[in-house]
Every structure is written in C-alpha cells, then in structure tokens.
Design brief:
heterodimer, A: alpha+beta, Ubiquitin-like (UB roll), 3-stranded antiparallel sheet, 3 strands, elongated, B: mainly alpha, two-stranded antiparallel sheet, 14 helices, about 70% helix, globular, binds fe (ii) ion
C-alpha cells in the first residue's frame, strides 16, 4: 500500500476541576485541526475536559529510561528537601 | 513518549538479548513495575503484546458491525441514542488500543492491513449474526459482560500503555452491559412474542459467549508465558466460571432459561457446573467458517476502501497548508 502514514499526535486534556492538562493518549490525524476534532471525539465523549492540547508526537523530547538513575537518584538522598526533615517543638503547634 | 518506541524497536534486535537484561526485566515485572514503551523488553514479550493488543483493537472495530446492523431499526429514540453511543464507544476502544499497540513499534496502518488481509484475528463472537432486536440486548448483557470479565484484570497488565487503555475502556463498558440488560428486562416483561424473542437470542448467544474466553486451560497456547509476564492474571477457565456464576442469577431474574441441561449448582465448589462446550464450532469459526466471517471482512474492506479518498484528501490538504506556511515565512 502506498498511502503514507498519517501522523501521530499526543492529546492532553484539562479536566473540569481546573487541574493542569494531562496526557490522555494519542491519535492519528493529517493536520492540527483534524487532530483537535478527533481528540474531542475520542477522548471527551463524557465531559472529561474543558480544554484540549494536541502536540505532534515527534515534537516531544523524552528522557531516556537508561538515564533514570543519573537523573532522579540525586533527589532521592536529599531528604532535607521535605518538611518532615525538620523538628519543630510540639508546643509551637501546627506549622 | 509513544512514538519513540517506533525507533527503539530496531536497536533491540541489534543488541540481542543478553541474560542480564532478561533477568532485570523479569524482576521488574515480578515486582509489579509497569513496563513502558521505551523500556527494554524481550522480543517475545513485544510480539505477544502486539498480537494481543491489535487483536483486541480489531475486535472492537469489527464488533461495531453486528450492532450497527440495528442502529436504523432501534424500537425507540431512547434505544437508538443509547446504541449509537455504545457503537461510538467501541470505535473509541479500537482507537485507544491501536494507539497502545503502536507503542510497541508496529504502525496502525500495518496492523489494520493485517486484519483486512485476514492474517490477524478478531474475537470469534463477532462472526455471529444479529437476527432480532433481542440480539442487541443479549450482546450488551452477555458479550460486553464477558468482555468486562476479561478486561478488568488487564487494567493491571504489566505493559503500561495497554493497562492505561484498559482503564479507559472498563470505565465505559459498564454502561454497555446495563443498557443491554435493560433491553432484556423490557422484552422479558413484554408480550409472549417479545419474551420468546429474548429467549431465542439467549439460546443462540450463550455458547458462543462462553467460547469468548478461549480454549480450555489444558489446550491454551499462550497461557504460561503470559501469566509469568503478568499480561494475563486469570486462566481462561477461571474467567469463564466467573462469568457463568455472575450470569446465572441475572438470567433467573429475567425468567429466561440458559440453554444448558447440565447447568447445576455445585454445593461443594460453590460454583455452577456446566455442560461441554462445542470446541469444534469454535475452531471452525476461528478458521473463517462462522456464519458471518466473510461478511464482516467484506464490510471492513469496503469501508476502508471507500474511505481512502478521505484520507488522501486530508493528507493533500495538510501538505498544501504546510507549503503555504513555508512560502509565507
Ligand atoms: Fe469495547
Ligand atoms: Fe462494549
């Protein structure tokens, strides 16, 4: 078959409760306008969202799973970045 | 994200599969970690999942045909709106699943071609005809009911993109089963003719529905490895039993008779015993000789061919817009 593959888009939706746009899946569409329409039909049939972003999949730069340790390990040992690391006397009450 | 798998798959084959990678992979699966598209995975895992997810996708798409058959003949506007919404959902399920399958490195176009050429399978159940309106009730109640039994454990499948697609699907399936059962309640409380129609549909769909869970455990080809890889959480026979146990009281409530003279409550096991399934019929349908195999494939091919101009036009328009933007810049 000679028909070229129709490009892939990633779909992000902001739900009703005002949270950030969240990745919900992907779809195929020839251009941005068709991608938006298809996203409406495929991912918001039950009022899942109030706003849609579509992004060409090949525009997304992803971290390499092999770099997981190098990227995220340094944060694991820094427990002093969390509030529970610090002692506040009970008498002071909630802080 | 999802497309990078298309590039990653090739290097997997080049590097070969060393034992250390395999054991690290199996340890992750054993620890209930999710495997993502860009993670290393054994070639056989990729192949098994590609086959399973794409077959699942084909089933959702072909599954629109038997129900679509009744869209213009639904008895009321309420029923018509519900059926239309259900069939749209099935289309959506097919698309979520193709997207999940693609993350493993095979394009949707290729997967669809495998189905249209008859090389890839879809669920045997969709090769049976929908002869009366009661078939639409029975499909929602039993076919979607069986699908739910199968799909709930898949929400915890080791492959992340598949598991996430199944979570979306399962959220939508419950309405499918309930609208089907509602049709059955209405028919079985209706005129004697309507009740007979409901019984007739149950008689025709019961055994094919039990076959949906696949061959008995002793004969199942993909069982062991899939269980070890946490693609499959329950055996075919376990799921089938669960389905029967859930369905018997529902049929009772409708005052319909399940067409199995050997159906008996087993006090000792706490399950319903059931009669022998005609696996010859199952194999026959899988081999392409069910009542509707040819019709279904012909309908899919026709829709695909007749839609070709739309795909071409959309691509040509996108190309033209792109040229315009480049010229203006
Ligand atoms: Fe479905
Ligand atoms: Fe369904």
């Amino acid at each position: 078959m000679t028909v070229q593959n129709i490009s892939l888009w990633e779909v992000f939706i902001r739900s009703r409760n005002g949270l950030a746009h969240k990745h919900v899946g992907s779809l195929h569409a020839a251009d941005a306008a068709l991608a938006l329409r298809a996203a409406r039909d495929i991912y918001t049939r039950r009022g899942e969202g109030l706003s849609i972003w579509v992004v060409p999949s090949n525009a997304i730069i992803a971290s390499d799973p092999a770099d997981k340790e190098m990227l995220f390990e340094p944060a694991m040992s820094k427990i002093y970045r969390h509030p529970t690391f610090y002692d506040v006397p009970d008498e002071v009450g909630h802080m | 994200m999802y497309t990078q798998a298309l590039n990653a798959s090739q290097s997997d084959e080049l590097t070969g599969e060393d034992a250390a990678k395999i054991s690290r992979f199996e340890a992750r699966v054993a620890a209930e970690e999710r495997i993502e598209a860009n993670d290393w995975m054994p070639a056989a895992y990729r192949k098994t999942l590609t086959r399973q997810i794409s077959q699942h996708a084909h089933s959702e798409i072909v599954g629109m045909l038997p129900e679509g058959n009744w869209l213009t003949r639904a008895p009321t506007l309420r029923r018509k709106a519900a059926l239309l919404a259900k069939v749209q959902d099935e289309c959506g399920h097919g698309l979520y699943l193709y997207a999940a399958a693609e993350t493993l490195g095979t394009s949707r176009e290729e997967l669809v071609d495998q189905m249209l050429s008859g090389k890839a399978k879809y669920s045997s159940i969709f090769n049976y005809p929908t002869l009366t309106w009661a078939d639409i009730g029975t499909i929602g109640w039993l076919v979607d009911g069986a699908a739910i039994m199968n799909q709930i454990p898949l929400c915890r499948c080791s492959y992340g993109p598949y598991a996430r697609a199944m979570i979306r699907v399962c959220k939508e399936e419950s309405f499918h089963q309930r609208q089907g059962y509602e049709i059955m309640v209405t028919l079985s409380r209706g005129t004697p003719e309507q009740k007979a129609m409901a019984q007739g549909a149950l008689d025709r769909w019961w055994w094919p529905c039990l076959m949906m869970f696949g061959p008995p455990d002793q004969q199942s080809q993909h069982g062991d490895q899939s269980t070890r890889w946490k693609i499959k959480r329950f055996s075919n026979d376990d799921l089938r039993q669960k389905f029967i146990d859930a369905t018997v009281p529902q049929a009772r409530y409708l005052d319909l008779k399940i067409p199995d003279d050997n159906l008996r409550w087993n006090e000792a096991t706490g399950h319903w015993d059931y009669g022998d399934i005609d696996w010859q019929e199952f194999n026959n349908v899988l081999a392409g000789n069910g009542p509707c195999n040819r019709d279904r494939l012909a309908a899919r091919r026709k829709a695909h061919d007749e839609g070709a101009w739309v795909r071409e036009a959309a691509l040509a328009y996108a190309e033209k817009q792109k040229r315009k933007t480049t010229a203006a810049a």
